[in-house]
Amino acid sequence: INVSEQKLQRIIGKEGVARLLETPQKLEGETMASPDKFRRIGIFLRMYRADARPWMPFHIDGNRWTVNVALRSDSEFEGGRLLALHDGKLQRILREEGDATCHRGSVVHGVSAIGRGTRYSLIMFVHAKDD
Fold first, then answer.
1. What is the pLDDT of residues 47-83, one digit of tens each?
2. 43 in Cβ contact with 17 (< 8 Å)
3. Going by C-beta distance under 8 Å and a sequence separation of 6 or more, which residues neighbour residue 77?
4. Which domains does the chain have, with CATH numbers?
5. Mean pLDDT, to the nearest integer, of 118-129?
6. What Gene3D superfamilies does the entry give (predicted)?
7. Per-residue pLDDT tens digits for 34-48
8. Phi first, then psi: what are they for 15, rounded to 5°?
9. Which in 10, 19, 36, 56 has the greatest CB count within 10 A?
10. 86, 77, 100: which is closest to 26 by C-alpha?
């Protein structure tokens, strides 16, 4: 489900959206004083269930940064773990509801097969203006 920035602001507030966007800017060494460094391309909700999108193969994103917010804790479903290649190793990223991960779009990542329950995430693709 695609979500506009305005709709997300109505749901979590302007400050909540600003906090989600702070991390990529901080990782780039930028401050909120230069908010036009980035342009937001996509905000969407993603659902994983055994009978509907049970997993996501390893891939890279076509954007500068990805912000991924867990809308349910990993303990609420079986499987469906966020996986990423980092420092030459496969890393399993454990998350609680509300935890946000941020990574460069060039990081190889995926989601393991879900066996039981439903996994929900809010995803933001952040592109730099010079991309």
1. 999 999 999 999 999 999 999 999 999 999 999 999 9
2. no
3. 114, 115, 116, 117, 118, 119
4. 5-29+36-128 (2.60.120.620)
5. 91
6. q2cbj1_9rhob like domain
7. 556 677 678 999 999
8. -65, -40
9. 56
10. 100
- Lookup result for tokens 């980092």: 86
The DSSP output letter for 112 is: P
**Please, which residues bridge with residue 48 across strands?**
119
Tokens of 68: 């991924």
CA angle 87, 95, 131 (to 5 degrees): 55
Q: Which of 115, 123, 121 is nearest to 49 (CA)?
A: 115
Which tokens go with 79? 């499987």
